[in-house]
Amino acid sequence: MAMHWLILLLLLPALSIRAQELPLEETGGEQAKPLRTSVLQSSLLVQFCVHYRHIPRLTYFTCRNPETSTRNGEALRAAFAAKNAQLIKSLYRSQLFVRIVQLDVLQQTGGGYGSTNTGPRRGGGRVQGPRYGFGFAQSQSQAQSHAEWLDSVLTVDALRQIVAVDLACGAPSRRFLELASAKMLYSDKFHWLLIEDFGLFNQLEAATGKHQEVLPQQAKQLQSTREEEADFQPTIEEFTEGMNLYMNTELMLAKRLSEGANYTLYDVWNPGLNYGGHVNRTEIGSFTPSQGVRLHSWFRRTSTVRRRMDMQHARVRCMVVVTNKNMTGTLMYYLTHTVSGHIDTMNRFNFNLLMAVRDMFNWTFVLSRTTSWGYVKNGRFDGMIGALIRNETDIGGAPIFYWLERHKWIDVAGRSWSSRPCFIFRHPRNTQKDRIVFLQPFTNDVWVLIMVCGVVTVCILWLLTTIEWKLVPHDGAALIKPKGGAPPRHHHQVQQQQQQQHELEASVRPVTALSVAEELQDVTEIPKQEENSNIDPSTLWQRCYLKLNNYLKQRKAKRKAPERVGLFLESVLFFVGIICQQGLGFSTSFVSGRCIVITSLLFSFCIYQFYSASIVGTLLMEKPKTIKTLSDLVHSSLRVGMEDILYNRDYFLNTKDPVSMELYAKKITSVPTTKENEADEDEPADPAPAAAAAAGAAGTTDPAKSYRDIVHSHETGAHAKDNSASNWMDPETGLHRVKNERFAFHVDVAAAYKIIAETFSEQDICDLTEVSMFPPQKTVCIMQKNSPMRKVISYGLRRVTETGILTYHFNVWHSRKPPCVKKIETSDLHVDMDTVSSALLILLFSYGIALMILGTEILYTKWHKRIIIKFG
């Protein structure tokens, strides 16, 4: 950059001195013509940059001396230098950020225009080659130096800029355009303005022809020289046939053929030289200093893409991804027809969108196919992305997930398909909560309150029964009978009953001596026994026997007395019977006791109604979903399978999610285990150290071996197809196992819904649950990096979306989720063993406790009898 400014500063004094040294006939009245031309071109550049493109950055490519073979070449060079000096001065006075670049470094090193005849001739038909030759005898080092020079003076950055080229320089300007074509600089980053001004040269040649006499023989020679030069040098229109112009090229050609102060403006573009397109040149307006840039109304009212919607059947290479191994028919038929629409769904959907864009812009496809979207293998991309990088195709017919590692290799045009892979499985009807179904109707707070009410009721009932038993001693009429039998009578009641009994016996039986003797004997036996009990035995065994015998007699006597413990236990049994809708066969004479009974019955009735209704509702309602996350699925009893598709395998190769890593190590890949691992598998899994779990599942003893090494050892990259030790399968097989087994299968819903709708019953559909391993992925259309087709496809996809074509194809290719038609059937009301298992466990547990107590009582009875027999 500094070198260019230095050249410019050195050039301006030389140009002014050169203009002063011209002959009088050349600098007299004709000196104003270069000045008028400079003013005209300066006004054109300012108007083009500021008012038309609104880009204040200008890079102006010119030369010091134009190449010309006419006899008045010196006069033309002097006029060109004067025009450039004034033009550069006026540009620096404008509001533009101007950079002047000299093209003299691209001067011919060979024998000039006639040295070779590699370029096309005028009128020779359409140009076939990509470039035009001008007799450049350049070595490889010179070509490389010119390319490096172009990279230094014209770099692609984030900001747009104007590039103006003075075509009056001749061969250097054409050489510069060739270099820009090879570098593919005719993109939307640069707005080109090519100025072809013949007005100045025509004026100078006409002026010099007036002052000089030309002999007829010299005139013929000059005419033949011009014809040969014109025959060799193509016009700018022919030259653009070999330039790499594209759909997004912004190139305007300004031509001035007469002495008038106006330029005719042309829009130049090409659908693509590599696509077999033709150059399109359209007159779009004119420029005059007084009126500025005047464009036709149709040009001003339309955008660049809308003006270039006819690509003239350009042949665009398109590569699609086909994973169906059983594809029949032609590739075009398979992609456009809905035969087996659940296979390669997103690839065929995206291609049909591109078909709509193709019809909109009038191009044709050159199709090819591959089996991979493009994954890094051995440090390089394979599949569709690899073909785009190697320039084997132009656009990708299949959408991809846009990841960071792919950003620097490809360009995207817009969103296409929304992919939603997830685990699909039939949720188990009976989960862990179903095993405690008898506790589910009430919450823990309700159960606690019921227990509190039971304790209060038992205590009040215990108190009332005790009081009633003492106050109203009715035989068998009490609320609860104590274990000891009837309570002792009062003293006067006992005496009265004994007297009545003696009178009755006396009236019935006569008094005899024998009866009196017997009564006396009975009376005298009691004190004898008491005396015997007070006798101090001589031996130790006799003393122990007497003490044990006395203790047993005392316990037997106490049993005949009422016990408060027995009343409490009877109260507890009464409350349990009331709650269980049973009860006891007795009544009470106290109003308070009857109130307790009625209250307990009403309380039991309410509790029973709520409880039974909740049980029935639990059986009728939809089973709760307990497997809601990926972690729940990992720790469940369900087996897991994956759709055998490349992006699933690549996900496990690159994921850092610990739950996904644990899922792969435990559920997806079956690996041989050692004895150490068998001991570890019995322990509960810890999801945090996923790498250690994976290493343990693989049976390795090296702790440094990570999860990534295990995945690579089993997958061997993203293209491994060895399913012998893993659960990778096609959608039909996986969903068949989902239907008939406790199995979870990871598949895209677009492929799964159609199979489910055709093979699953309504009840099976209602049992399905979906759990995502990663969020839904948005896919995009792709093409080569810096491709000129990017704006075309972006605009086409937006139009396709606005007009409803995208929605139409989405409904065609994406199967809807099968609806769940819930019906109450007899199979929904059955109670299986898992549901009643808690009641059976309680019953078996009570059986065990009863048997233990029975055994204890039997042992105690046998021990008691043995003691009595031994000491009796």
Structure, described:
With 872 residues, the chain is of the alpha/beta class. The chain folds into five domains: 2-107 and 141-307, Rossmann fold (3-Layer(aba) Sandwich); 314-420, D-Maltodextrin-Binding Protein, domain 2, CATH 3.40.190; 437-491 and 538-620, no CATH class; 630-776 and 814-826, no CATH class; 833-872. Helices cover 50% and strands 14% of the residues. The strands form five sheets. An eight-stranded mixed sheet has the order 2-1-3-4-5-6-7-8. Strands 18-17-19-16-20 form a five-stranded mixed sheet. The chain has a three-stranded parallel sheet with strand order 10-9-13, with helices on both faces. The longest helix is centred in the C-terminal third of the chain and has 39 residues, at 833-871. Mean pLDDT is 75; it is low at 1-29, 109-137, 210-216, 218-231, 475-487, 508-535 and 671-705.
Question: How is this structure best summarized?
Answer:
The chain has 872 residues and is an alpha/beta fold. It contains 33 helices and 21 strands.
Q: Report the uncertain regions.
A: 1-29, 109-137, 210-216, 218-231, 475-487, 508-535, 671-705
**CATH topology label of the largest domain:** Rossmann fold
Strand order across the largest sheet: 2-1-3-4-5-6-7-8
Distance between termini?
131 Å
DSSP, total strands: 21
Spatial shape: rod-shaped
Number of helices: 33
Classification by helices and strands: alpha/beta
Q: Which homologous superfamily in CATH is the superfamily of the largest domain?
A: Response regulator
The biggest sheet amounts to:
8 strands, mixed
Number of domains: 5
The CATH top-level class label of the largest domain: Alpha Beta
Keywords: Cell membrane, Glycoprotein, Membrane, Receptor, Signal, Transmembrane, Transmembrane helix
Protein name: Ionotropic glutamate receptor C-terminal domain-containing protein
GO molecular function, one term: ligand-gated monoatomic ion channel activity
Main location: membrane
